[in-house]
Structures are given as C-alpha cells and as structure tokens.
Amino acid sequence: MSAAPKIDNPLFDKRLLNAFAEGVTKTLQMMANTQVTFGKPTIENNYVLRGQVAGIVGMTAPPLRGQLTLSFPKDAILLIIENMLGEKNTEITQEVCDAVGELTNMIYGTAKTSLNQLGYNFEMALPTVIHGEFTTDFKGITLVMPVKLNATTEFFVGISVS
Amino acid sequence: MFPTSTRFLVVDDFATMRKIIKKTLIELGYTNIEEADDGATALPLVQKAHAEGKPFGFVISDWNMPKMQGIDFLKACRADEKFKLLPFMLVTAESEQKQILEAAKAGVSDYVVKPFNSATLRGKLEKVYAKVSQNPVAKAS
After folding, report:
1. Residue range A10-161, CATH number
2. CB B44 within 8 A of CB B75
3. Measured distance CA(B114)–CA(A4) in Å, rounded
4. What is the pTM of this model?
5. Interface contact flag, A31 B19, Cβ < 8 Å
6. In the 8-state DSSP scheme, what is residue B135?
7. pLDDT by residue (tens digit) across B47-74?
8. What is the domain partition of chain A in residue ranges?
C-alpha cells in the first residue's frame, strides 16, 4: 500500500472523486441495471441537500473528517427502486428510506475500497437516512456531483470535508 | 446445487438487501427462507431451528450491522460444534484484503462483495455447494 496522499484538500484529488463516481456507477449498474451519467460538479460552501430523501455516512480517515450524502428527489429514488426491486412506489415510505440507506452503504463501501488502495484510510460506518425537512449540521465545503438517470431525472452526490 | 428444500437464513439490517437476496433465491427455486436484521437476532434463530430439528442449511449474512456484526455472528456459529460446518456466506461492502482474511480465518464458506448481481450470488452458492459436496461430513449435517 502506498503512503497516504499529501493533498491539502482531498476535494481536489481527482482520484477521490473518481472513486465515488465509480461507486455510484457500479452500484446502480449491478443492483438496478441502471446506467448513469454525471453532470458538472460544483463546490458549495453551504451545502443545501436537494430532494426529499437523503442517505448520509460519516467518512473518517484521520486526520480527514468528511461526510458523503446522497440526496434524491422523489422521482429519482422511485425510479431506482423500481429498477432494483421491481416495486412501484408513489411515496417516500419506510421501504424507500431503507433502500436509500443500503445504496449509501454500497456506494461508500465501493469507494472506500478504492480509496484505501490509494493510501487513504477510510473506515466503514453505518449510514443514516433523513427525509422531509432537510438539514445537515456539517461544517465544511462540499463537492456536489449531479448523477443523471435520464434526461429529466437526477440525484446528487455530496462529498464534504471539514 | 443445494436441494430446493434447503432452509435459508438471510441476515441484513437493511430490508432492501434481504429482499434482493430473497428474490434471487426464489428465482433459483428456494422458498424456505427466513430473515433476521442482525447477528444478535439471527444467532438464537439458528440455535432454535437446530433444537427443533429443522436446522438452517445455509446462512447468508451482511457484515456491517448494528448490535452483532456478521463476522461476530459467524465466529459465534463456528464456536459451536453444531454449526461448525453450516454453510455461511458473508455479503458485504467490505472488500479489503484484511477483511477477506479475517472472514477466511473465522471459517466463512464464501464471500460476496456488494454491489453484486444475481448471477454472482448464484455462482457463489454453486461454489459453496461444490465445497460441501467434497466434504461428506458437512453434506450429512
């Protein structure tokens, strides 16, 4: 294993972003037979989650502390669940929230494996899911990557570091 | 392959993953499937099923769960003479070398890394069956 990358802000480490993009692509392709494309990433100082439901997992790789958030508008998560389980939902139910948690877990797990091979030292953590009124008390900057499921449906991956 | 009457226990804290695994097992012809949401709930089920004379023939468990993790559930099973040879597969997002080694050392039958598709899960089941078939003691238990 190589030494931990010496980068002031990991959000500028292209390999970190690629690892999360790969996690999203691989998870949705394998579990939901869904191909995705990525929109232009942006950096936000005060990240506001988008959509109606989000999966959040704390990323700890001392001295780095961060957070991965996957935030889904209703149409995006319902489409993914239909592709993944063959179930048609019309509302954000407990089952939908559960699927968001599992997707967050898989995407983080896939990215973490790639990143640790690059010399990071991320630990596994249990994700949490929030829906309804969105707030996040994480202080730091966030890189936001839109993930497009089709021409009109997208969700957002947020990678925050403090 | 394992007979379609094989009794499966699927353990995961996320109902979504239990549904995905169950869906694949049903596609393969298995209908005798029970679920648990972590190792702490699953272990007494394994013990009870054995005591009642209807033992599980295969356990598929997540690794990263609250209360009792999959690896600890596996170790608890292997520590009991009755479940030393119980086919036990870990399904997990943990795919680093140290985790794989830990699972192998604890006596896992095989290991599926998430994300996966149904073909991968089927292939792993076949692989475990091939191992079990080569071990007449395990086959008989």
Report:
1. 3.40.1550.10
2. no
3. 25
4. 0.87
5. no
6. -
7. 999 999 999 999 999 998 889 999 999 9
8. 10-161
